Amino acid sequence: MLEGILPLWKEKGMTSHDCVFRLRKILGMKRIGHTGTLDPDVEGVLPICLGRATKAAEYVTDMGKTYEAVVSIGRATETEDSSGATVEENLEPKCFTVSEIQAVLQSLTGEITQIPPMYSAVKVNGKRLYEYARLGQSVERPSRTVRIREIELLSGGQMFEGTEVEFRIRVVCGKGTYIRTLAVQIGEKLGYPAHMSSLVRTASGPFKAEDCLTLSDVEQERDRGTLEAALLPVEQALSEFPQVLADDLLLPKILNGQVLPAHPLLSEHPRIVYCNGGRAVAVYRRHPEKNGLMKPEKMFGMAEDKR
């Protein structure tokens, strides 16, 4: 049975769930999970967890992401991207200097507040926002704080002119960031309606575009019997947490899921990963109720356990 992280390049026109469905048929296995949704119009890195690595999917989802997007100034849409109907337009001639744009990008770096788009999967009163939107209903959306670690202007030149001005940016951000909403916010700061005209995810945590296989590549690797060599170890999904050796004395207690005295590293880190023979055995966190103790959050078992 296959086990590990499959760095998939999701192509346009597919949902993340479509990718999982296709992979279950290609690989003949059910224990497959994706690590965060990408809209059908977006292509890019979508790490897929196979076998026991599915237990680590939430950690990959929580990792930072890197995107390349094209921001279009002059027109706003109902979906905040190019797929939606125009809701506001200003086609008067515009002229922005590179320093003006960079100042706006800098002002949106750090912790910022966003309101999720109506066409999004965020739930309000038990119903996803896009379900309200499809019914023509508008509901109050809770704002959220997200972290923008870096925004870089990729387009060259000193002036950006036209009735609808476009430029490409690179965004490194934390979990829950809507890049299309960021494009709208950039437009607001420049004084015009805006939308995101294209988006590519180039990295998800430690998983990069150059690591990725398309669905067609996966089929070819399967047929050649070389797919397992293309998988990345589950430990890469846990790379943000310190690794601690589970020695022969401690290992049986960890495998039994025992509550243990808190490791000193938990005073500085939210989680630690116990490993044996270079393989992750369990993720531990501070006990939420018992001071000075820690409890297992995820159990991976020994290397031979590939259920």
From TrEMBL:
Q: Where is the signal peptide?
A: none
Annotated active site residues, numbered on this chain, are: D39
Task: Provide the catalytic activity annotation.
Answer: uridine(55) in tRNA = pseudouridine(55) in tRNA
| Residue intervals of the tRNA pseudouridylate synthase B C-terminal domain | 180-238
Domain Pseudouridine synthase II N-terminal, first and last residues per copy? 24-179
Keywords from the named record? Isomerase, tRNA processing
Isomerase keyword on record: yes
Q: Please give the Pfam families that the UniProt record associates with this protein.
A: TruB_C_2, TruB_N
InterPro entries found in the cross-reference section: PsdUridine_synth_cat_dom_sf, PsdUridine_synth_N, tRNA_psdUridine_synth_TruB, TruB_C
Name the Enzyme Commission number(s) assigned to this protein.
Answer: 5.4.99.25
Q: Which family does it belong to?
A: Belongs to the pseudouridine synthase TruB family. Type 1 subfamily.
Task of the protein: Responsible for synthesis of pseudouridine from uracil-55 in the psi GC loop of transfer RNAs.
Cross-referenced HAMAP family: TruB_bact
| Name of the protein | tRNA pseudouridine synthase B
- Organism of origin is Bhargavaea beijingensis
